[in-house]
Specification:
Elements: H1 2-5, H2 9-30, E1 33-34, E2 44-48, E3 53-63, E4 69-78, E5 83-84, E6 88-92, E7 103-111, E8 114-127, E9 136-146, E10 154-155, E11 169-177, E12 180-187, H3 189-192, E13 196-201, E14 214-218, E15 241-247, E16 253-261, E17 264-272, E18 281-283, E19 294-300, E20 306-312, E21 321-323
Antiparallel strand pairs: 1-5, 2-3, 3-4, 4-6, 7-8, 8-9, 9-10, 11-12, 12-13, 13-14, 15-16, 16-17, 17-18, 19-20, 20-21
């Protein structure tokens, strides 16, 4: 108290102002977001059972001190799936990467003591299917690594995509079978007309592909994937998006994936008839979710309950939110 009494009134006012400002700053830092506050497409949740924290990843563009922009990824944290932290940057694509464009569909997997971020990166490399169609840019899925789910994530040495460079590829995800890691990804309908789901083996440390890709199935194999009309195309395009693998308690290997059903974004389910990643894959005839939302993934919450997260609505742009 003697310290305060020895101060003059101007010093007291200044100290009070500083205390108020600091308190406001702490409150701003502590402010949490509801899941409906968070704009997000292609949501992915990593559950850390040791810390009892949910990590949700989303794409972001980052502006560097000199003004140039690169694609990147942010993470939000939660203890209850309802209240989320402010986003934190976990990846900014390095300038010497094969592409520094915007990112789609980031997802993070815990594997062999490290964390691996799968990210679809767009480029400025133009690919054109035919003379009478619009131009499209090449994209591919690249894997980054870190020692923590909060990053920072780093590129492997070659700075190249893990999907074939001559394919418009996206939405790569990890699946490990008998100790062997694989990436399942979408070969985009823009290039193939009838999009495909592909499989490529990975090196044990996920640093690069470990063989050639094979096709698992076409989008049109699912009766519920009704196709999309495209100007100047003689046939409908069939989308493959958002693959995610899940093995049931009874040993069934399922894949949820997204396409369009009667004009709306939807999720369907495929089952491997052998229980192995190579298939063959049998499609359920009806969509699992058909309310203009999709790109889902499955996770078990901290109580062991199986949960589905997806984004919806798929349009208009800016309206997308995560739904669990």
């Amino acid at each position: 108290m003697k310290f305060i009494f020895d101060m003059n009134w101007k010093q007291i006012i200044l100290l009070a102002g500083l205390l108020i400002a600091c308190n406001m700053g702490l409150k701003a830092q502590d402010k949490t977001l509801s899941i409906q506050d968070v704009y997000i497409r292609d949501p992915f949740i990593l559950v850390d059972t040791s810390s009892c924290i949910y990590y949700m990843y989303r794409t972001a563009m980052f502006t560097h001190p000199d003004g140039h922009k690169t694609g990147g990824v942010e993470v939000l944290k939660s203890k209850d799936l309802e209240h989320w932290s402010q986003p934190k940057q976990v990846l900014a694509i390095p300038d010497d990467n094969w592409s520094t464009g915007n990112i789609w569909a980031p997802e993070v997997h815990a594997y062999q003591g490290k964390y691996y971020l799968f990210a679809t990166i767009n480029s400025d490399i133009v690919w054109q299917r035919k003379a009478d169609t619009q131009q499209y840019i090449l994209r591919g899925t690249q894997i980054f690594w870190a020692d923590s789910p909060e990053g920072p994530f780093q590129a492997f040495g070659d700075r190249l995509p893990h999907t074939p460079i001559d394919q418009m590829a996206l939405d790569g995800t990890l699946y490990v079978e008998n100790g062997k890691p694989y990436m399942v990804y979408c070969h985009e309908w823009v290039q193939t007309v009838d999009g495909t789901m592909n499989l490529i083996p990975l090196k044990q440390d996920l640093s690069a592909p470990d063989g050639t890709d094979i096709r698992l199935f076409n989008a049109s194999a699912a009766p519920w994937s009704t196709g999309t009309e495209v100007p100047h195309w003689k046939e409908k395009g069939h989308v493959t998006d958002g693959c995610f693998l899940y093995k049931t308690k009874t040993g069934k290997l399922l894949m949820i994936w997204s396409s369009f059903y009667k004009g709306d974004y939807a999720i369907g389910i495929a089952e491997s008839t052998t229980g192995r990643i190579i298939g063959p894959w049998k499609q359920q005839p009806e969509p699992f979710y058909a309310k203009n939302g999709g790109h889902g993934m499955l996770f078990k919450d901290l109580n062991g309950e199986l949960c589905l997260i997806l984004h919806g609505p798929n349009s208009p742009a800016g309206a997308e939110r995560a739904h669990i």
